[in-house]
Specification:
The complex is a heterodimer of chains A (131) and B (204). Chain A has strands spanning 4-9, 15-16, 21-29, 36-49, 55-64, 76-81, 89-90, 94-106, 112-120. Chain A has 131 residues and is mainly β. In chain A, a hairpin with a 5-residue loop joins strand 8 (94-106) and strand 9 (112-120). The chains are: A mainly beta (131), B alpha/beta (204).
């Protein structure tokens, strides 16, 4: 059975301005505490479309299970100032998506990851012509 | 490796159609096993076909199958104009009995191809290559893409998004691109974008 990962952002509309502070929290459930080796949380952008895929990591946290952190399932919070670029973009041949990605490394089996998308800025004045 | 983003709504985005993301589609069940048996018996071979026939996809599928059978496999991708194998001095040479897969073998200069084949024979390394034309190998798998396979692939890619590109579209595109599956899938990407954007722009 897959673990349950809940990711929450401070803005319920998930629309942020460049430079704005973003607070994020996440929690893991439906899995035993000792089955988790580490949890990584990233704020990152990914491109998709017709060309090569690119990605960039803006913020990265890794927590491992040790004497101080015996239960990685507990609610965990972090915050960051979002960058000025690249902005979220929905073009025809290129799209840029911003996501919070939480990746769980299990003691056995493949890592499990969950994404929550959000919008960073808006590309004003851009209007694409359909062929 | 970058994980495919579930956010990529266009099923023909690179993240879904890359050669390492799709298993090669054989026309008959059990054909993969037979092909691997032939290759193992011959001690290597070549996959020959035109541009966009699915050679890289087939090599990834064969690589997975060989690794599953316990072989050590090293894969090298050669790009246009790459005339030699850029190997790091510190990297370990492949062990005897392992497989060396070269995607784009024809990029190498003739004497380098010959030298590599000779070195592999001498070191008992199985050489498996893809190329646009036939070279001297003990086993050859000739590829010729078919429109039915293209239709199946496009249907499978659209399973989560609904049919936007029809079988008629695929057959037309297959003809227009002379059976080049890569170009066909790029054209499907454009069709998907145009049609879904027109649909969402329509009032009501």
């Amino acid at each position: 059975m897959e673990p349950l990962v809940s990711i929450m952002l401070c803005d319920p509309h998930r629309h942020y301005r460049p430079g704005q502070r973003m607070r994020c929290s996440y929690q893991v459930d439906a899995i035993a505490a000792d089955a988790i080796q580490a949890v990584e949380a990233s704020i990152m952008w990914l491109s998709s479309g017709k060309g090569d895929e690119e990605m960039g990591i803006h913020e990265f946290h890794r927590r491992t299970r040790d004497d101080q952190n015996t239960d990685l399932r507990m609610l965990h919070q972090f915050d960051t100032s979002l960058p000025n670029s690249p902005l979220s973009f929905e073009g025809t041949i290129l799209k840029i998506h911003w996501v919070v990605r939480v990746k769980i490394f299990l003691k056995e089996g493949q890592p499990y990851s969950r994404d929550l998308s959000f919008q960073l800025g808006s590309v004003a004045g851009f209007r694409e012509q359909l062929p | 490796m970058i994980q495919p983003s579930r956010l990529a709504a266009n099923p023909f985005s690179t993240c879904w159609i890359r050669p390492d993301r799709q298993a090669y589609r054989f026309t008959r069940p059990g054909q993969l096993g037979q092909l691997v048996e032939h290759l193992v018996r011959a001690g290597g071979g070549q996959v020959v076909g035109p541009h966009g026939a699915g050679k890289s996809t087939l090599l990834f599928t064969l690589q997975e199958e060989l690794v599953g059978r316990g072989y050590q496999v090293i894969r090298i991708q050669l790009h246009a104009g790459q005339r030699s194998l850029a190997t790091r001095r510190e990297s370990q040479p492949p062990a005897a009995g392992s497989w060396l897969i070269i995607d784009g073998f024809e990029q190498l200069a003739a004497w380098r191809r010959w030298k590599l084949a000779w070195q592999c024979r001498r070191s008992r390394i199985h050489l498996l290559v893809s190329s646009h034309r036939c070279h001297r190998f003990p086993f050859t798998w000739q590829m010729s893409p078919r429109p039915e396979v293209a239709c199946e692939l496009v249907d499978q890619l659209q399973q989560g998004s609904g049919t936007v590109v029809s079988s008629q579209d695929v057959k037309r595109l297959f003809r227009e691109h002379d059976g080049n599956m890569r170009e066909l899938l790029f054209a499907c990407y454009d069709l998907f974008e145009i049609r879904t954007r027109r649909q969402s722009a329509r009032p009501g």
